[in-house]
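tokens incoming
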């Protein structure tokens, strides 16, 4: 590596390259292509407190913060292909293990790279507020996410006003209190474990936990914790926390759309299959009986034609309510078709499906008032299929199909060629479907607005819920399209 002599002293004698390097105010280091430290000037040794005998010839991996290592190696490689490298910001460790922020810029020469390190630790403290402490405080206080500084024991050293806004508590009252003590009882262990991990392993951790709010409520929050215990400017754990209530609500709405019938609110076929699979497995372990009832509303088409599709919908909603009322809370009632329902019976009722069928018949005796003000009485045909006792080799599809076959045998079907109300039925179905699409769209919009705040697991979970909701809507659109294609008006 050659450095041209420069005349500069009073005698006109050329100044040596070593003298020039040591006179520079900024730390300067020389590394080889293997990322080993070859030389350092006086400013570097003074600033970092390095012992030349220990660091010269050693790998630089331990001198750069682990989170910045990949960026440092990439910059070292790129500078070898050009005269002067682009500036990158890195955290460099001193002899006491503390990190400072430096802007690094390198120049390649032969098999070495000369790197100038300009400290920006103070600038990092102030750059967001342009040096104004009052502006910095105002920015933090008005940020929607709370910023919390913890000490090495996980106790609150300071927090912004957003924490008071989110939880309704005085920020000063939490100073010195462990963060896990502020969490809801069921999430304290989670918060404690996550803090222990980030303290021991370093880096960043993201997780969700609920925290106690004023008035006895709880608020779900997404937290990101960064280990900056060895950072000279911070020396603690930096926590960013935002209220996840809207995200959780959006997730819940998407999941409900994907798993429930929008008219009756009952589980749809997909969720019913899932619960039936769980019930089959549980019954197998307990060696208890399991029975599925399939119920079909008799004359539903005639009801739609006589009282309009809204009248038919009113009947279905009331039938669903009555079915739900006659079984135990632990049993499942689902809607699996236009006028079809399925009941999963476990325990005592599974042994006596005939008695349950009689209760269903009695429950349908009371008239149902439709929107036109007229009262109608409906009957429900019931078929059953029992899984029996061990061994349980039957699957959910076979069990539901057996129950459907049984109800078809006793279903009093009314056949009519009158399709006058087909267009009305399709119009109402389309209107209802548009409402569901709008609800899903609103939920997805909430998720997209907060997507950058989520960790990968949360992002995958919400995307999965969104995809399930989209599939459900797609199935409904297909059903509507098939109805339009066979409608006389279509």
């Amino acid at each position: 590596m050659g450095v041209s002599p420069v005349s500069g002293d009073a005698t006109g004698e050329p100044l040596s390259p070593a003298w020039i390097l040591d006179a520079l105010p900024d730390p300067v280091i020389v590394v080889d292509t293997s990322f080993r430290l070859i030389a350092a000037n006086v400013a570097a040794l003074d600033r970092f407190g390095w012992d030349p005998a220990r660091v010269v010839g050693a790998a630089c991996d331990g001198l750069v913060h682990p989170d910045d290592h990949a960026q440092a190696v990439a910059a070292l490689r790129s500078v070898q292909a050009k005269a002067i490298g682009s500036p990158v910001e890195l955290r460099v460790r001193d002899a006491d293990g503390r990190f400072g922020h430096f802007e690094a810029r390198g120049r390649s020469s032969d098999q070495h790279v000369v790197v100038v390190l300009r400290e920006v630790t103070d600038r990092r403290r102030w750059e967001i507020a342009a040096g104004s402490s009052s502006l910095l405080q105002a920015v933090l206080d008005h940020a929607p996410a709370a910023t919390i500084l913890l000490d090495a024991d996980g106790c609150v050293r300071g927090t912004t006003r957003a924490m008071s806004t989110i939880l309704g508590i005085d920020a000063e009252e939490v100073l010195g209190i462990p963060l896990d003590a502020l969490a809801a009882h069921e999430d304290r262990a989670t918060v404690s474990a996550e803090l222990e991990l980030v303290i021991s392993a370093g880096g960043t951790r993201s997780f969700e936990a609920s925290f106690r709010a004023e008035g006895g409520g709880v608020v779900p929050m997404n937290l990101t914790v960064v280990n900056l215990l060895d950072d000279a400017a911070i020396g603690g754990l930096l926590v960013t926390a935002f209220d996840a209530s809207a995200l959780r609500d959006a997730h819940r709405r998407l999941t409900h759309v994907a798993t429930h019938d929008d008219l009756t609110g009952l589980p749809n076929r997909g969720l019913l299959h899932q619960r039936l699979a769980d019930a089959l497995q549980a019954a197998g372990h307990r060696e208890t009986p399991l029975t599925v009832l399939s119920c079909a509303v008799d004359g539903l088409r005639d009801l739609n034609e006589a009282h309009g599709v809204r009248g038919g919908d009113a009947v279905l909603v009331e039938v669903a309510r009555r079915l739900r009322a006659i079984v135990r809370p632990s049993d499942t009632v689902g809607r699996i078709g236009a006028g079809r329902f399925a009941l999963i019976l476990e325990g005592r009722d599974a042994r006596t499906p005939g008695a349950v069928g009689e209760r269903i018949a009695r429950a349908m005796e009371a008239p149902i008032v439709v929107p036109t003000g007229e009262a109608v009485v409906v009957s429900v045909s019931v078929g059953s299929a029992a899984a029996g006792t061990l061994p349980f080799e039957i699957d959910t599809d076979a069990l539901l199909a057996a129950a459907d076959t049984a109800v078809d045998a006793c279903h009093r079907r009314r056949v009519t060629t009158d399709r006058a109300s087909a267009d009305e039925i399709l119009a109402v179905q389309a209107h209802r479907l548009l409402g569901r699409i709008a609800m899903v769209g609103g939920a997805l919009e909430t998720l997209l607005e907060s997507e950058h705040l989520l960790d990968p697991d949360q992002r995958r979970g919400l995307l999965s819920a969104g995809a399930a909701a989209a599939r459900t809507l797609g199935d409904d659109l297909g059903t509507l399209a098939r109805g339009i294609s066979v409608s006389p008006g279509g």
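note: The first strand starts at residue 6 and ends at 7.
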